[in-house]
Design a protein that fits this description.
By secondary structure, the protein is an all-beta fold. The chain has no helices and 17 strands. The strands form 4 sheets. The chain has a 5-stranded antiparallel sheet, with no helix packed on it. The protein has a 4-stranded antiparallel sheet with strand order 1-8-3-6, with no helix packed on it. Strands 2-7-4-5 form a 4-stranded antiparallel sheet, with no helix packed on it.
Length: 215
């Protein structure tokens, strides 16, 4: 598709702050005739599709949402290029003078850390081949303090199921889960420390020593 040009004749050498929203067809461009010394890309419908040329420079450059460029001199226009194969909507600001946009723009992701109001622990010694932790929260931590390998499974797993997360003696397992879990032992019995985190009060950690004796 051939490039298209839309001229917007609104600028002067004393151009104030002005926001624009443009829809640029796939593979096309928009030439914005507004004298400016600042360019801020506020929002865009595709993260890496926009390239920008400032005042007829030799080439254009990629420009991402949240970026702002203060030019070394006033230019008469800015040209926006859509490098994608779909229509691109861009919301941007231009003008003479400083442009500060304090909004947070995230192109990828932000890792957050959850916090909990309540925490309950219990030391559990089970004598059979399995232990069902019945109390749920929002996160559970299980530490293996015994001599047998343990396998942490979902609460509906069968007694003797060794397909869960393996926790060797001295190791631990942390799961962000709201239900209880079944802990199966590779031998007979086990000694574990259990910690449950929740936004609600946890009166006690309930469990059943319901495996097979002598397994």
């Amino acid at each position: 598709m051939a490039d298209t040009t839309l001229n917007i004749q609104t600028g002067t050498i004393d151009a104030p702050y002005q926001e624009f929203t443009e829809v640029i067809p796939a593979g096309s461009n928009r030439k914005i005739n507004y004298v400016t010394e600042n360019f801020a890309l506020l929002e865009t419908s595709a993260a890496e599709a926009l390239h920008v040329n400032f005042g007829g420079a030799a080439n254009e450059t990629p420009f991402l949402a949240g970026m702002r460029y203060k030019l070394p001199a006033i230019v008469p226009n800015v040209t926006l290029f859509n490098k994608s194969n779909t229509d691109l909507t861009v919301h941007f600001a231009m003008g003479c003078g400083e442009i500060d946009d304090n909004r947070l723009t995230v192109v990828s992701s932000i890792n957050t850390v959850s916090t909990f109001s309540h925490f309950k622990t219990a030391g559990i010694n089970f004598t059979t081949s399995s232990c069902l932790i019945k109390t749920g929260g929002e996160k559970i931590v299980i530490q293996n303090n015994g001599a047998n390998d343990l396998f942490v499974c979902d609460k509906d797993a069968a007694v003797g199921d060794l397909g869960g997360f393996k926790v060797e003696p001295g190791g631990d397992c942390e799961l962000p889960i709201t239900t209880g879990v079944r802990v199966n032992s590779a031998g007979t019995g086990g000694t574990i420390s259990v910690g449950i985190f929740s936004s609600l009060v946890i009166p006690a950690i309930e469990y059943d020593d319901d495996g097979m004796a002598g397994a």
